[in-house]
Amino acid sequence: MNKINAIFDHNTEEAIVKEDLEKKLNSGKKLRIKLGCDPSRPDLHLGHSIVLRKLKKFQDLGHQVVFIIGDYTGMIGDPSGKSKARPALSAEKVKENAKSYFKQVGKILDIKKTEIRYNSEWFSKLSFEDILTLTGKFTVARILERDDFSKRLKSGIDIGVNEIMYPIMQAYDSIMIGADVEIGGTDQKFNMLAGRGLQKKMEKPQQNILTCPLLVGLDGKEKMSKSLDNYIGITENPNSMFGKIMSISDDMIFYYFKLLTDISKKEFDSIEKDLKGTLKNPRDLKVKLAKEIITIYHNKKSAEKAEEEFNKIFRDKQKPTDIMEWKMENGKWKMADLLVELKIVSSKSDARRLIKQGGVKIDDIVQKEFEKIIEVKNRMIAQVGKRRFIKIKIN
């Protein structure tokens, strides 16, 4: 009973329909619990971990977790919460991104007990007649009620027909795997309700729905997202994880503990009290948070070493122990081009912005001109911000 109660009590925003789901959970029946994830990016981040950890609670109760890799829906991209259409991805790119998902999901779920499906299994077999039959069970008016779609309509921003198809496809996934429960973030509520509605129209048992809170990213404003570069990857190395967690604002500490850790209620109450008081330095709570999260995805030893490395760089002003090497030929580069070549920045515009802000160093010398010509040398160290270092190794 405690484990069942934990499903509703911990990191659940809404349960539809709670009474029905409680009845199913208490019946002893093995339920099929669905989560779909589009491989639009190769990395899963801590925002994804909230729903994955919810799935683990069901798995620990003996239920069948079904993890759907949306290789077909991923080519559209979920429009939920988006103010414009997402860039279409090729089937090859989606397949490439999906390759790493097994390892990442395995950080939380027991992969041997997880049923992993690709929705290309069924969508690739549908005829155009099948698609017309399926879409006939939905109305345009109902789909356009979505908050993000209605805002785009009012603003005169185009909505692609393929985007309208997205909730229909996600709903059909529930039909094909016989979902009893679907889990997702609060932004997925419309799509999950579409699945419930389609099941009813096709005279199938209706899935229950659990929505989980969304995790705010490192910027403290937007939902954690790789595209916004405000994320912490599930398989990110411990040193990077530690540094990123230490960068969050003090008012995010409470929520990160709540959404991302399994600390006891007693510990949580103590942290809440410390945050409201003035005796405890918030930095110490961030250290505890960082170590808790790294221990979950790596181990306790890695968490301790990450703390030591962080102190070495930020407190003692030393360079990291292990700096990633980048092999390249002798040559001369414009400053911005070199940073892009080293993959230490995402784009030339990103490089220019960081140089302008004084956030780029070459061998400890701040670089102020993005057009400056740099002659690369063996063991030269490029630094961006306080955490990103690359050592050049000449072939």
CATH third-level topology of the largest domain: Rossmann fold
Quantity of strands, as a count: 13
Main sheet specs: 6 strands, mixed
Taking all Cα atoms into account, the compactness measure Rg is 24 Å
Q: Let me know the average pLDDT.
A: 87
The helix content is 40-55%
Number of discrete helical segments = 18
CATH class of the largest domain: Alpha Beta
Total number of domains = 3
What is the 3D form?
globular
- Structural class label: alpha/beta
Uncertain segments are: none
What CATH architecture of the largest domain do you see? Answer: 3-Layer(aba) Sandwich
How far is the N terminus from the C terminus?
A: 62 Å
Strand order within the widest sheet?
A: 1-6-5-2-3-4
Task: Kindly report the name of the CATH homologous superfamily of the largest domain.
Answer: HUPs
Beta-strand content estimate: 5-15%
What do you see in this structure?
It is a single chain. The chain is of the alpha/beta class. It has three domains: 2-212, Rossmann fold (3-Layer(aba) Sandwich), CATH 3.40.50.620; 238-315, Tyrosyl-Transfer RNA Synthetase, CATH 1.10.240.10; 325-394, RNA-binding S4 domain (Structural Genomics Hypothetical 15.5 Kd Protein In mrcA-pckA Intergenic Region, Chain A, Roll), CATH 3.10.290. 45% of the residues lie in helices and 14% in strands. It contains 18 helices and 13 strands. The protein has a six-stranded mixed β-sheet, sandwiched between helices. Strands 7-13-12-9-10 form a five-stranded mixed β-sheet. The radius of gyration is 24 Å and the shape is globular. The termini are far apart. The model has no long low-confidence stretch (mean pLDDT 87).
